[in-house]
Every structure is written in C-alpha cells, then in structure tokens.
Amino acid sequence: MLELRYDPIKNQYVAIATKRQERTFFPPEDFCPLCPTKSNKIVTEIPAYDYDIVVFENKFPSFSENPDKLYLNKSEKEGFITFSKKESKGICEVICYTSDHNLYLEDMSITKISNLIKVWKDRYATLGKKNFIKYVLIFENKGKEIGVTLTHPHGQIYAFPFIPPIAREELKSSKNFYMKNKKCLHCKIIEREIEDISRVIIKNSSFIAFVPFYARWPYEVHIYSLRHIGSLCEITDGEIILLSKIIKELINRYNKLFNFRMPYVMIIHQNPTDGKDYDYYHIHFEFYPPYRTKDKLKYLAGCELGTGVFINDTLPEEKAAELRNVDLI
Amino acid sequence: MKKENTNSFIKVWQEDWDKPNNKINKQLDIKILSGNKRSREDLIQKKRIIKKEDGRYLIYYDF
C-alpha cells in the first residue's frame, strides 16, 4: 500500500509504503542488484555489461507516478474528525554512481564526480518540470550505521508532491530574513563563517565547507556555493569541477579522521519546483555523519525525537579543527 | 566500453524542454543565462532510456 496520511497535530504527511518491507537486504556481492549484468544467470537491475552512470525507478518506492487508488473506509469517515489521506503521487529513483561495486564517491576521479553532478542537475530539472512534483530531494545514505542495505555506491532521489517540512521551515526563515533585510540569509551566514574562520574546513573560489555554528551532529558539515544560486540548474561547468573537488576532499577528510569509511547522510537542499519564485533561497549540501568519536555513535533519542531539539555533545569549532587538521597525504 | 545493444527496446524519450509553458523551463530560461546552456543540451544527447519488463524506466547516462 502506498498512501500519504496527514497528521493534523504535527501538520505534516506520513508516507505509508508497505512494499518497502520486502526490499533487498544486504545481498552477497555476487548478487548485487546495482552491479551490471555480467551473465544471463544473474540479471541485475541494470541489463548492460557495463555503464557510466545509471538512473532507474526504485523497485521499492515511497511514492509512485501511478499510486494506489484511495478509498476511505467507514471508521475513517465517521466521528468528529475525518482522517485525511491522499495519493502518494511522486517519483523515487536510484542513481548508481559507477559500475564498480567498490569505487566510492570519494575514490572517483574529478571528471567522474563532475559527471555525477551533471546527472543530479538533469534529474532535478527533468523531475521538477513535472506538474505534480513540487520538491526534488537528492540524497545519499552511506554505511550500515545509517541503515543502508545495498553497499554498491549509489544515491537516491525523492520527487515529492508537496514541499516537505524541513524545506518549508528553511524557506520560511529565508523569506522572512530577505523581507526584513533585502539580503540572502545564507549569503550572510557564509560571510560570518568566512570572517570567523574557526569552523571553516575547505574553501575554493566557488564553494566553502564548514561545520555550522549551530551544528546538530558532531561532524556535520555544510557545503555552500559562494555565488547566490538556488539550484544545480544555475551551476556552470567550471563550478561543477570545483564542487566535485570540495565533495571529494571533504569525504576523504572524514575517512582519514578515524581511518575508516565514514558513514553519512548527504542532502542537497535546492529550490522547490512548484513554479514559484524562491530567489531568497540558496543551494547547499548537508552532511550528517553519525559518529561522535571513533567508536561511539550519536543516536537520535528522547530529546531529539520528542522535541526536535538536538543535543550536540561537542563544540563545532573543535570538530572543525579536527577535520581541518586531517593530513590527507 | 562493452555495452549491450538495447536498440530493440529503447523508448523515445519525449523531452519537452522547448515547450513554452513548461513551469521549470520558465525558471530555467531565466536561470540558465547565468549557467551554461550548452551543458544542458549535451546531457540530453547522452541519455539512453529503456523500459524494464515491469514498466519501470532505466536511463543510461553515457559520458
């Protein structure tokens, strides 16, 4: 069953997607569904013998372009409140970064990472131009600690039929700041981080990576475009190369920090695609690694889940220094 | 690079970049001026789309 159920208390939707319980769970490497098809005996998701980058519709989606028809049963219609639900109409895609099962994003050449960014750019534009898609979320979950069940290097795209709550909040704050100051909130934050310097990890002529002043995770890092742009559609070829370099360096710094591949969630925040004007918003990437020390994970528990307030047990300035001081050679 | 011949089941991808009333195109046509128009067109030429047996699409991006 696929449907969106509305929570009138939290003012947000929950996506019910029961088929996802059946999704592939840690298959042996020989049976990886994201590898190319090497023999007729084991046909994977990708029929080609080899590929550069592949995108396909998720077999176990949370939304679908052709969702289940909705019906309301008797108990939902009766009583003081009608439980509201709507069709889970959206699109879920998988992006395979490479045909090599063991070549992670940070190991790839700058050219290959640049190609991936061009694919992200194309998927954002292609999905976003569909009338029922209001928001395109491009993300990567990496590592078993995050809950990843397929180890082949890949990311995902969720194209939503509505603007999700976190994006909605960010847009609201950005708009309020712009209305009051006639300046972009994110551009001003970048200025402050550059002035302060203590939380900056990497900076090149087009992008900056820093642990934000208000980091929720110990090693949370945001990558911002120095130029005020709202989505990947506005990025130039030269900027794509510089973005590739900063992503590659950041992930390698994460890996060198504790000498293992750091798991993370990577999110790309971009303008909604509902046709409205969001000139006050600013594209950025957010990385959330779950480790707080080499052998301790940060879990979301009572306070975070119960109130939405994150407790960060570390000082962002100290964590930024650790990442900055990693010797990459 | 060795690749299978998928010509027999390639579906023509209806790119509608040039439709005048397309909502994203309207945004792109403005924004692309500060970006790189050529790269968008290049990308489209590099896409090969097939339909899988269960109806899902799969897109090869060749570089």
Terminus-to-terminus distance of chain B: 11 Å
Query: Taking Cα atoms only, what radius of gyration of chain A do you get, to the nearest Å?
Result: 21 Å
**What is the 3D shape of chain B?**
flat
Number of domains of chain A: 1
Based on the structure given, which CATH architecture of chain A is correct?
A: 2-Layer Sandwich
Give the count of structural domains of chain B.
1
Largest sheet of chain A: 9 strands, antiparallel
Beta-strand fraction estimate of chain B:
15-25%
- Extended strand count of chain A: 14
CATH topology of chain A: HIT family, subunit A
Number of strands of chain B: 2
Would you kindly provide a written description of the structure presented here, covering whatever features stand out?
The complex is a heterodimer of chains A (329) and B (63). By secondary structure, chain A is α+β, with helices and mostly antiparallel strands. Chain A has one domain (24-59, 90-324): HIT-like (HIT family, subunit A), CATH 3.30.428.10. Chain A has seven helices and 14 strands. In chain A, the strands form three sheets. Chain A has a nine-stranded antiparallel β-sheet with strand order 3-5-7-6-11-12-10-9-8, with helices on both faces. A three-stranded antiparallel β-sheet of chain A has the order 2-1-4, with no helix packed on it. With 63 residues, chain B is an alpha+beta fold. Chain B has one domain (7-61). In chain B, 29% of the residues lie in helices and 16% in strands. Chain B has helices at 23-31, 37-45; strands spanning 47-51, 57-61. The interface between A and B is large, with 37 and 34 residues.
